[in-house]
Design goal:
The structure holds three protein chains of three kinds. By secondary structure, chain A is an all-alpha fold. Chain A has helices spanning 3-29, 36-39, 59-87, 89-111, 131-143. In chain A, helix 3 (59-87) runs antiparallel to helix 4 (89-111). Classes of the chains: A mainly alpha, B mainly alpha, C mainly alpha.
C-alpha cells in the first residue's frame, strides 16, 4: 500500500525539477534588456493604478458565493440530464426538490437585496444612518 | 380505569395547588368555584367507576396496578392502585360528601380571613383520603394516613388565633401519632416476616403458611399465632387513633373547634372512617385473639361515648360523641366478624352523620348571624340551652335533623336501621358462637351485645334530646330567636341530598324491603373470612349461620330499644313529665362522670402527662447536675488540655498540608490562566505542541 | 446501491426530512417578516422542533440499519443523542426569547442557523463513514462560527467568531490529514471496512497508526473541547451570545462524544462490534491509555483554571471543559457500563449546564452583572433564582440528591468496575470533584452566605422563565427516583448498528 506513495513522490520531485529547470534555463540563456514598461505589472493592457493592497468591496464575495452555488447546480444537473431517460420520474422529483431548495436560496438573496449592486433602500434605515438620525446630528451641530 | 382512579386521586391536589398559589385571584374572583368544579369532576369520575363496578356486579371485581417505587438491594417498595368494590364505594362516598361540603362552605365560610387556604386544605384532605382508599399496600396507606393526619391538623387549627383551636389541632395530631406508632410497628413486623406489604401479597403469604416458621414464630415459642396477633393489634392501633376509639378518642370532641363543614367531612364521614377502612383491609389477617381485642375496644367505645353524649350541652359535642360511639359500632362489628355490617354502617353513617353535622352547622350559622345582629359577643352560639323552638324558624334544617336522627336511632325505613341491626345481629351471633377460651368461660362475649343494645337506647335518647332542646319548646332567648332565619340554598340543598341518602332503598336496590339488608350492597361486599389457618376458631360458615339466626331476635330487640330511647327523651324533654335536673341530681355521681367525660382528659393529664414531665425533669436534673458536670464537662476539660497540645501539631502539619494543597491548586490555576493569552496564533502553537507531545508520548 | 434502495432508506430519515422542511419553511417565512416580527421565526422553529421530537420518539429502532451504503446509521444510539439535541435546542430557543442580547434585532437568521446546526448534529451522531463524519462535522462547525459571531456590532463576538474559524479550520485540516492517512492504510472510508482491514492487518506500524489516530482525534477533540484543543472555548464562550454559549457547551459537545464513541468502539476495537459488553482495543494501538491521559489532563486543567475565574460565563466555560474530561472517563472503560454512563451523563449534563447558563443569563438581564462576586445576597433577593442556581451547582458538582450525582456515580462505577487499570484515573477524577466543589459552591457562597439580609421586596422572575427552569429542575431532582427511568432508557439506547 505504502509503496504507491513512492510513485507519487517521484512524480512530485520530477515535476518540481522540471519547473525549476525551465526557470533556470531561461535565466541562463535569455537576453536581459529591461525598460520601465517591461518591468511594470501586467494588468490586461491597462496602466496600473494605486497600490496592490486595496480593499475590495465585500459584495464581491457575496456575488461570488451566489455564482458558485448556481454553478454547482449546473454541475449536478448536467450528469442528471444525461442519464435522465434511464432513471425515470423519481429522479425528476429529486432534482425538483434540489432546485426548489436552491430557489429558496435565490429568494433569500433577492429579498435581502444582494442581487442589486446598489441597494434600493438603506438596509439600516432606522439605525445610525437613518435620515432622521442624520438630521438630528445636523441640528446638534448648528446649535453648537 | 387506572387512569380514572389516578385522576380522582390527583385532581383534588390540583385544586389545592390552585387555591394556595393563586390566593388573591381566588378571593377576589369567587375562585372557590374552581375547586368546586374540580370536586364535581371527581364526583363524576367516581360515579363512572361506581357504574363500572355495578356493571360487573361481582364480589371479586378488582383491578390492580403496581409500580416499583425504589429498589434498595433486596428491599423494594412498591406503589400501586387497587380498585375493588370497597374502594369504589368509599371513593364515591368521599367524593360526594367532599363535593357537598365544598358547596356548603361557600356560604358557611363566606368572608373568612383564610378563605382560599380553607378550600386548599379541603383539596389536600380529599387527595390524601382518596390516597388511603386507592392504596394497594400498607406502606402507601401509611403515607396517606399521615397526610390525612396533617390535613386534619391544618383544618382543625383553621382559626388558630383561638387558643382552644390551636390546642385542639395539636392534641388531635399528637394523639393520632400515638396510634400511628403502633401501626408502623405492625407494618414493620409484617414487612420483616413476609417481605411484602401488598394486601394480596400479605393475605396469600399468610394463607400459604409463610408466617409459620422463621421470624414468624418469634415471641410465641413454636406458635406463630402470637406475633401475628400482635401485628394485627398494632396495625389496629392506627385505626384506634384515627377512628377515635377508646382510649385514644379524646381528640375527636376537641376537634370540633374546626369549622363545622370540616367536622362533617373529616370528623364524621371520611377521615375517622379511615380507621374502619384500615380494619376492613386487615380483617383477613386478624387472629381470633386480635379480633376479640378489636371487638371489645369497639364495644366499650360505643357504649362509653354514648353515655357521655347524654349530658353534653354543646350541639357539636353531642354529635362528636355520637360519632365516636357509632365508630365504636363499626369497629365492634368488624371485631365480631360482621364484616359486611361494619362496612355498611360506615357508608350509611357517613351520610346521615354528615347530614347531622351540616344541619347543626346550619343552626350555628343562623345563631351566629343572630348574635351578630344583636351585637352579643359573649353568648355561645353552639350551646343548646340558648336555642329552642327553632322548628318554625328553620323548617328545612329541622326536617333534615329529624330524618337523620331517625336513621341514626335505628328506625325502620331508614338506612341506619339496616346497618345497625346487622351489627347487633353480628354481635349476638358472635356471643352465641363463642365456645372456647375466656370468651366462653364467663359468658364474657355477651358483654358485646349488651354494649351494643345499651348504646342503641342511649343513642336514640340523646339524639331526640338534642332535637327537642333545639327545635321544640319555647326559646330561652327570645332576643336571639327573633333574628333567627333559615340558611341559604347553598347550605340547605346539600343537606337535603344527605337526608335523602339516609333512606333505606338506596342501599337495598334492586330488592325493596325495609327490614332486610339484601340488595346490591350485600351482593358486592362479601365477607372475605380469615386467611389465618392455624389455631383459628373463626369459622365463616358457622358465623353466617348464627348471624342468620340472630337476625330476627336482634331486630325486634333493637326496635324495642330504639322506641324506648325516643320515648324516654320525649317524656323528659318534650312533655317534661320528668325533670332533667332532678334526674341528674338523683343519679349524682353518674351524671357528673358523664358530664365530665368520665375524667378521661384529667386521667391523661394527671396520670400520664404530668408524671412523664416529672420524670423528664428528674432525668434532666441528673443529666445536667451529674452527668454533664462531672462526666461530660470533666472529660471535656481534660480533652481540652490534650487537644490544645494536639492543636499546635495540627495547625502546623495537617492544616499546613491542606492549605498547601489549596495553594498548589490556586497557583496552578493562576499560572495556567496565562496560557489563555487571547491570541489565536498562540493557541494554535500550543495545540500543535500538544498534538506532537501526545503522539510522541504514546507512539514511543 | 440502486435508486430504490435510496428511496427505501429515505423512509428512515423522517426527523431529518422534517427538519429540512422546517429549515426551508423558516427561511421562506422569515422573508415576509419585518425586524419587529422576526421573532415569529423562533416560534415556528420551536413548534417544528417539537414535531421533530415527536417523530424521533415515533421511530422504531429495534432493527438498526445502515443507510446510503452505510454512510449513516439508523440505531437507538443515534436516536438517543438526537433526542437530547432536540430537547436542548427547544430549551435554548425558548430561553433565546428572553435573552436581552438578542432583543431589538433581526432575529430570524439566528433560528435558521440553529436549525441547520441541529441538522448537522443529527447526521454527526449517526455518521458511519469518515466522509459523512467530516461533512457533518463541518456543517456543525460552520454554523457554530456564524452563531458565535451573531452579534455583529459587538467586537468580542466578532473576535470570538474569527478565532473559532481559524482554530476550527486548522483542526479540521489536521483531521482531514489523519483521515487521508487512514485511507492510505486501509483503502476505505467506511468505518466498518476500516475496522476489518485494521484488525486483519496487525503488521501496520504502531507509530504510523498512532499518528493517524492522533491526527483524527484532533478534529474530535476540538469538538468536545478536550485539552489541548480547548483553547478556543473560553474566548468563544465569552464572546458568543449567551444562549449560543449555552447551546455550544451542550449539544455539539454531546454530538462530538456520540461520534467519537461510535468511531472508537467500532473502528479501533478487535471485534468491531460495539454492542459487545466488553471490548478490546486493537493490539497495535493502545488508545484507551492515550484517552485516559487526555481525560485526566482535561479535567484537571478545566477545573484548575475554573478556580481562578471571576466571570460566571468563563467559569462555566472552563467547567464544561472539565465535564468533557469526566465523560472521557467513560470512553476509556471500553465496557457496556461506560457507554451507558456516558449516555446518562450526556443527558443530565445537558440539563444542568443549560440550567446554570440560563440562570446566569437571567441574572445578566435582570441585574446586569456576570461577575460572581456581584451575586452577593441574590439568594435572598430572588429566592427562585437562588434555589434554581443551588440545584444546578449541586448537580454540576455531583452532590446528591441531584441527577448530577447519579450520573457521576455511574461513570465512576463503570471505571472501577473493569479492574484496576484505571484506578488512578478514578482517583484523579475524585480529586477533581473536590476542586470543582470549591468554585461551584463559591457561587452559592456569594448568593447566600456573604451577606444575609432579607429584602422588603423580592425580585420576581417572569413566569415564562420560572416555568422553563422548573421544567429543567424536575428531571434533575426526580429523574433518577422512581425506578430511575433515565437509566433504563440509556441502558436500552446502547444499541449500535453493525453490518
Amino acid at each position: 500500500m505504502l509503496e504507491h506513495y513512492g510513485t507519487a513522490l517521484a512524480l512530485g520531485i520530477v515535476g518540481f525539477l522540471l519547473m525549476y529547470a525551465a526557470f533556470i534555463i531561461q535565466k541562463l540563456v535569455g537576453p536581459k534588456n529591461s525598460t520601465d514598461v517591461k518591468l511594470d505589472t501586467y494588468e490586461c493592457g491597462e496602466e496600473p493604478e494605486g497600490e496592490t493592497w486595496i480593499q475590495f468591496n465585500v459584495r464581491f464575495y457575496v456575488i461570488a458565493l451566489i455564482f458558485i452555488i448556481f454553478d454547482i447546480e449546473v454541475v449536478f444537473l448536467f450528469p442528471w440530464a444525461v442519464v435522465f431517460k434511464d432513471l425515470g420520474f423519481l429522479t425528476f422529483i429529486e432534482v425538483f426538490v434540489f432546485i426548489s431548495i436552491l430557489v429558496v436560496g435565490l429568494a433569500y438573496v433577492w429579498k435581502k437585496g444582494d442581487l442589486q449592486w446598489v441597494k434600493m433602500k438603506l438596509k439600516y434605515g432606522t439605525g445610525r444612518y437613518s435620515a432622521s438620525n442624520l438630521l438630528e446630528k445636523e441640528n446638534l451641530k448648528e446649535a453648537a | 380505569m387506572i387512569t380514572v382512579a389516578l385522576l380522582i386521586l390527583l385532581l383534588p391536589l390540583l385544586s389545592f395547588a390552585i387555591q394556595i398559589f393563586f390566593r388573591k385571584f381566588i378571593e377576589s374572583k369567587n375562585g372557590e368555584w374552581i375547586s368546586i368544579g374540580i370536586q364535581l369532576t371527581t364526583l363524576g369520575l367516581a360515579f363512572y367507576l361506581f357504574a363500572v363496578m355495578i356493571g360487573h356486579y361481582d364480589p371479586h371485581f378488582r383491578i390492580e396496578e403496581n409500580v416499583t417505587w425504589f429498589n434498595l438491594g433486596n428491599f423494594s417498595l412498591e406503589m400501586g392502585i387497587l380498585i375493588d368494590n370497597i374502594s369504589v364505594i368509599m371513593l364515591l362516598v368521599v367524593a360526594l360528601i367532599s363535593s357537598l361540603v365544598h358547596i356548603y362552605s361557600t356560604e358557611y365560610m363566606k368572608g373568612d380571613i383564610r378563605f382560599s387556604r380553607y378550600y386548599g386544605f379541603l383539596g389536600i384532605f380529599t387527595f390524601s383520603m382518596n390516597g388511603i382508599v386507592l392504596a394497594n399496600n400498607f406502606f402507601m396507606i401509611y403515607v396517606f394516613w399521615e397526610l390525612v393526619g396533617l390535613s386534619s391538623y391544618l383544618l382543625i387549627g383553621h382559626w388558630w388565633e383561638k387558643n382552644s383551636a390551636a390546642d385542639a389541632s395539636k392534641k388531635a395530631f399528637i394523639t393520632n401519632r400515638v396510634g400511628d406508632i403502633g401501626m408502623f410497628m405492625g407494618l414493620m413486623i409484617i414487612m420483616t416476616v413476609l417481605g411484602t406489604l401488598n394486601y394480596q401479597g400479605v393475605y396469600t403469604g399468610i394463607a400459604s403458611g409463610e408466617w409459620e416458621g422463621g421470624i414468624g414464630t418469634l415471641f410465641g415459642g413454636a406458635n406463630p399465632h402470637t406475633l401475628l396477633t400482635w401485628a394485627g393489634i398494632l396495625l389496629f392501633m392506627g385505626a384506634v387513633g384515627k377512628s377515635a376509639q377508646f382510649p385514644l378518642h379524646i381528640w375527636l370532641p376537641d376537634a370540633m373547634e374546626g369549622p363545622t363543614p370540616v367536622s362533617a367531612l373529616i370528623h364524621a364521614a371520611t377521615m375517622v372512617a379511615a380507621g374502619v377502612y384500615l380494619t376492613v383491609r386487615i380483617f383477613p389477617i386478624l387472629t381470633p385473639d386480635a379480633m376479640a381485642t378489636v371487638a371489645f375496644i369497639g364495644g366499650v367505645t360505643a357504649f362509653y361515648a354514648a353515655t357521655i353524649a347524654i349530658t353534653q350541652n354543646d350541639i357539636k359535642k353531642v354529635l362528636a360523641y355520637s360519632t365516636v360511639s357509632q365508630l365504636g359500632y363499626m369497629i365492634m362489628a368488624l371485631g365480631t366478624g360482621a364484616y359486611v355490617a361494619g362496612f355498611f354502617h360506615l357508608i350509611t353513617h357517613a351520610m346521615f352523620k354528615a347530614g347531622l353535622f351540616l344541619a347543626s352547622g346550619s343552626v350555628i350559622h343562623a345563631m351566629h348571624h343572630a348574635l351578630h345582629d344583636i351585637k352579643d359577643h359573649d353568648t355561645d352560639a353552639q350551646d343548646m340551652r340558648n336555642m329552642g323552638g327553632l322548628k318554625s324558624k328553620m323548617p328545612y334544617t329541622y326536617l333534615i335533623f329529624i330524618v337523620a336522627s331517625l336513621s341514626i336511632s335505628g328506625i325502620p325505613f331508614f338506612s341506619g336501621f339496616l346497618s345497625k341491626d346487622a351489627i347487633l345481629a353480628g354481635s349476638w351471633a358472635y356471643a352465641s358462637t363463642a365456645h372456647e377460651g375466656w370468651l366462653a368461660s364467663m359468658h364474657m362475649a355477651w358483654i358485646l351485645p349488651f354494649f351494643g343494645f345499651g348504646a342503641a337506647v342511649i343513642t336514640a335518647f340523646y339524639m331526640f334530646r338534642l332535637i327537642f332542646m333545639t327545635f321544640f319548646g319555647e326559646s330561652k332567648r327570645p332576643d336571639i330567636f327573633e333574628k333567627m332565619h333559615e340558611s341559604p340554598k347553598a347550605m340547605t340543598v346539600p343537606l337535603m341530598i344527605l337526608a335523602a341518602l339516609s333512606l333505606f332503598f338506596f342501599y337495598t336496590i334492586p330488592s325493596i324491603n325495609p327490614f332486610s339488608t339484601h340488595g346490591w350492597f350485600s351482593h358486592v361486599i362479601e365477607n372475605p373470612g380469615t386467611v389465618v389457618n392455624f389455631g383459628s376458631t373463626f369459622n365463616l360458615e358457622h358465623f353466617e349461620h348464627a348471624n342468620h339466626e340472630a337476625h330476627m331476635p336482634a331486630m325486634i330487640l333493637s326496635l324495642i330499644v330504639a322506641t324506648l330511647g325516643i320515648g324516654f327523651a320525649t317524656l323528659v324533654y318534650l312533655l317534661k313529665k320528668v325533670s332533667a335536673e332532678s334526674l341528674a341530681s338523683k343519679l349524682g355521681v353518674l351524671y357528673k362522670g358523664s358530664f365530665n367525660k368520665w375524667y378521661m382528659d384529667e386521667f391523661y393529664i394527671n396520670g400520664i402527662i404530668r408524671p412523664f414531665l416529672k420524670g423528664c425533669d428528674a432525668v434532666a436534673l441528673f443529666d445536667m447536675e451529674y452527668y454533664d458536670h462531672y462526666l461530660i464537662n470533666g472529660a471535656g476539660r481534660n480533652t481540652k488540655k490534650v487537644s490544645s497540645g494536639v492543636g499546635v501539631a495540627d495547625d502546623l502539619i495537617v492544616d499546613g498540608a491542606v492549605n498547601f494543597s489549596g495553594y498548589i491548586f490556586q497557583w496552578l490555576g493562576w499560572s495556567l490562566k496565562f496560557i489563555q493569552t487571547g491570541r489565536i496564533q498562540n493557541y494554535l502553537i500550543f495545540a500543535l505542541i500538544g498534538v506532537v507531545a501526545v503522539f510522541l508520548l504514546n507512539a514511543f | 446501491m440502486n435508486l430504490s434502495q435510496i428511496v427505501q432508506d429515505l423512509g428512515f430519515l423522517t426527523p431529518e426530512i422534517l427538519l429540512t422542511g422546517l429549515i426551508l419553511l423558516a427561511i421562506i417565512y422569515d422573508l415576509f417578516l419585518t425586524k419587529e416580527t422576526s421573532i415569529r421565526t423562533g416560534y415556528l422553529a420551536i413548534a417544528g422542533m417539537a414535531i421533530v421530537l415527536f417523530s424521533l420518539f415515533a421511530q422504531n429502532v429495534e432493527a438498526s440499519q445502515g443507510l446510503f451504503n452505510q454512510m449513516v446509521a439508523y440505531d437507538g444510539y443515534a436516536r438517543y443523542f438526537k433526542i437530547i439535541i432536540t430537547l436542548a435546542t427547544i430549551l435554548v430557543m425558548w430561553m433565546s426569547f428572553q435573552n436581552d442580547e438578542l432583543k431589538n434585532r433581526t432575529i430570524g437568521e439566528y433560528y435558521q442557523l440553529m436549525l441547520v446546526l441541529v441538522f448537522g448534529m443529527f447526521f454527526l451522531v449517526s455518521a458511519t463513514n469518515m466522509l459523512s463524519i467530516y461533512l457533518s462535522l463541518e456543517i456543525v462547525s460552520i454554523m457554530s462560527y456564524l452563531l458565535a459571531g451573531y452579534l455583529k456590532e459587538n467586537l468580542r463576538s466578532n473576535e470570538s467568531a474569527i478565532k473559532y474559524v481559524v482554530f476550527g479550520g486548522v483542526s479540521s485540516g489536521i483531521m482531514l490529514y489523519g483521515i487521508s492517512l487512514i485511507y492510505g492504510l486501509t483503502g476505505s472510508l467506511n468505518i466498518y471496512e476500516i475496522q476489518a482491514s485494521l484488525a486483519a492487518n496487525a503488521a501496520i506500524s504502531p507509530a504510523l497508526l498512532m499518528l493517524a489516530f492522533v491526527l483524527v482525534f484532533v478534529g474530535f477533540g476540538y469538538k468536545i473541547a478536550a485539552v489541548p484543543f480547548h483553547f478556543w472555548t473560553p474566548d468563544v464562550y465569552e464572546g458568543a451570545p449567551a444562549t449560543i454559549t449555552a447551546f455550544l457547551s451542550v449539544a455539539p459537545k454531546a454530538a462530538g462524544f456520540a461520534v467519537l464513541l461510535r468511531f472508537l468502539n467500532t473502528t479501533l476495537t478487535l471485534s468491531g462490534d460495539p454492542n459487545n459488553i466488553a471490548l478490546e482495543s486493537l493490539s497495535n494501538l493502545d488508545w484507551p491509555t492515550l484517552l485516559a491521559g487526555v481525560s485526566a489532563i482535561t479535567m484537571t486543567v478545566g477545573n484548575v483554571v475554573a478556580l481562578q475565574q471571576t466571570n460566571i460565563k468563563r467559569m462555566l466555560a472552563y467547567s464544561s471543559i472539565a465535564h468533557a474530561g469526566y465523560m472521557l472517563m467513560g470512553v476509556v472503560v471500553m465496557h457496556h457500563n461506560g457507554v451507558s454512563a456516558i449516555l446518562y451523563y450526556a443527558g443530565i449534563y445537558t440539563l444542568m449546564n443549560l440550567g446554570a447558563f440560563f440562570v446566569a443569563i437571567y441574572i445578566k438581564n435582570a441585574f446586569n452583572t456576570e461577575t460572581i462576586s456581584d451575586y452577593t445576597g441574590l439568594g435572598y433577593k430572588a429566592p427562585m433564582i437562588g434555589i434554581a442556581m443551588a440545584v444546578f451547582m449541586f448537580s454540576l458538582t455531583g452532590l446528591p440528591p441531584t441527577g448530577g450525582f447519579v450520573a457521576k456515580f455511574y461513570l465512576f462505577r463503570g471505571l472501577v468496575g473493569v479492574g484496576d487499570t484505571f484506578i488512578w484515573l478514578a482517583i484523579v477524577g475524585l480529586i477533581n470533584g473536590v476542586v470543582s466543589l470549591y468554585y461551584y459552591l463559591r457561587v452559592l457562597y456569594f448568593m447566600y452566605f456573604k451577606e444575609m439580609n432579607f429584602p422588603d421586596v423580592y425580585h420576581r422572575a417572569p413566569l415564562q422563565f420560572n416555568i422553563l427552569i422548573v421544567i429543567i429542575i424536575i428531571p434533575l431532582l426526580f429523574g433518577w427516583m422512581i425506578g430511575d427511568p433515565l437509566s433504563t432508557w440509556t441502558a436500552s439506547a446502547t444499541s449500535f448498528f453493525v453490518p
